[in-house]
TrEMBL record:
<dbReference type="InterPro" id="IPR009057">
    <property type="entry name" value="Homeodomain-like_sf"/>
</dbReference>
<dbReference type="InterPro" id="IPR017930">
    <property type="entry name" value="Myb_dom"/>
</dbReference>
<keyword id="KW-0804">Transcription</keyword>
<feature type="region of interest" description="Disordered">
    <location>
        <begin position="127"/>
        <end position="160"/>
    </location>
</feature>
<feature type="domain" description="Myb-like">
    <location>
        <begin position="63"/>
        <end position="113"/>
    </location>
</feature>
<dbReference type="Pfam" id="PF00249">
    <property type="entry name" value="Myb_DNA-binding"/>
</dbReference>
<dbReference type="GO" id="GO:0003677">
    <property type="term" value="F:DNA binding"/>
</dbReference>
<dbReference type="GO" id="GO:0006355">
    <property type="term" value="P:regulation of DNA-templated transcription"/>
</dbReference>
<keyword id="KW-0805">Transcription regulation</keyword>
<feature type="domain" description="Myb-like">
    <location>
        <begin position="9"/>
        <end position="62"/>
    </location>
</feature>
<keyword id="KW-0677">Repeat</keyword>
<dbReference type="GO" id="GO:0003700">
    <property type="term" value="F:DNA-binding transcription factor activity"/>
</dbReference>
<dbReference type="InterPro" id="IPR001005">
    <property type="entry name" value="SANT/Myb"/>
</dbReference>
<protein>
    <submittedName>
        <fullName>Uncharacterized protein</fullName>
    </submittedName>
</protein>
<feature type="domain" description="HTH myb-type">
    <location>
        <begin position="72"/>
        <end position="117"/>
    </location>
</feature>
<keyword id="KW-0238">DNA-binding</keyword>
<keyword id="KW-0539">Nucleus</keyword>
DNA sequence: AACCGGCCCAACCGCGTTCAG
DNA sequence: GCTGAACGCGGTTGGGCCGGT
């Protein structure tokens, strides 16, 4: 049974906002500062709107610091790598992109970035088969070459990143083939969903990027101001760490980094699986539930 | 010019979480 | 501890826009 509607839908205006309504809302927020009670706002501001709708309008459109469009490649990369790490946690992803809203990031991913990833994947898949087939999987020869998977600037992050399936755990277990099972339920759900909607094998693990992939768009990006070092406590991340590694370097992710990443993953996946990952890094304790405070 | 289909984005919907009473 | 209201989030939808035919 669903919850009761927050307002009487029959009596409030719905649909696109008029400039007049925007102005009323803007004026109210300007003069009253932080909105404590969105449900009460429409009446106070003279708006015939649902409070929820007002909140959304403000957060997604009217806020003064909002940026619209014009995503940079660096932002693309942040979105992609975080999507790989934590799935469709848009609010978290958006929080790492100043001026971007979760709705905006979500729309951007669904309408553009995902396709960009697919296109890049096609390119790199062909390259892989034409020029680098037979090189095997850098994570371990025990893994059967997976079916074609997005291997793009985005899709290259779709392989198990340290944050979603740490190499420390993998190498410790000695069973690289168990990667699929290493995904947390929440991650699997995300990928499953992605698979259904995108009609593409994103749920499959990508093979390790080829050298060609390593030269791709993503690898050449500057990482100095990336967010992950901040998230894991200021550690200096190499690109290989962030991308899940390239070649042998991946297999030798140092324990400390792996631990930090496991902690990060545990923060995002507060479940038994995350606890298992975290436990593998001995000194890392998963949070009880919810996101790590540092991530919110 | 009219129609069509795909794209894009703002807005809506419903559910889980939080919190005050 | 319980309950219900409010909040926050992710998924989905509606409709305008635009390019192709």
């Amino acid at each position: 049974m669903g919850r009761a509607p927050c307002c009487d839908k029959a009596s409030v205006k719905r649909g696109p906002w008029s400039p007049e309504e925007d102005e009323l809302l803007r004026n109210y927020v300007r003069s009253h500062g932080a909105v404590g009670n969105w449900i009460a706002l429409p009446q106070k501001a003279g708006l015939n709107r649902c409070g929820k709708s007002c909140r959304l309008r403000w957060l997604n459109y009217l806020r003064p610091d909002i940026k619209h469009g014009g995503y940079t490649e660096q932002e693309d990369m942040v979105i992609c790598s975080l999507y790989n790490s934590i799935g469709s946690r848009w609010s978290i992803i958006a929080s790492k992109l100043p001026g971007r809203t979760d709705n905006d990031v979500k729309n951007y991913w669904n309408t553009k970035l995902k396709k960009k990833a697919m296109a890049m994947h096609q390119q790199q898949y062909h390259h892989h088969h034409n020029g680098t087939a037979g090189r095997g999987h850098a994570r371990g020869a025990t893994i059967a070459t997976p079916p074609p998977a997005p291997q793009s600037q985005c899709a290259s992050y779709m392989q198990p990143s340290p944050a979603s399936a740490s190499s420390a755990v993998t190498t410790a277990s000695g069973d690289a083939g168990s990667f699929g099972a290493m995904y947390s339920p929440s991650h699997q759900a995300t990928l499953g969903h992605y698979n259904v909607n995108a009609a593409a094998p994103l749920a499959e693990f990508s093979p390790m990027p080829t050298p060609a992939a390593a030269n791709s768009w993503a690898i050449n990006m500057a990482f100095e101001d990336m967010f992950l070092p901040e998230l894991v406590g200021g550690g200096d991340f190499s690109q290989a760490d962030l991308f899940g590694g390239f070649g042998a370097s991946l297999l030798q992710v140092q324990d400390s980094r792996a631990s930090s990443l496991q902690e990060l993953s545990a923060c995002y996946f507060p479940n038994a699986q995350a606890e298992m990952w975290a436990a593998a890094a001995d000194h890392v304790k998963p949070p009880g539930a919810g996101l790590c405070p540092s991530l919110t």
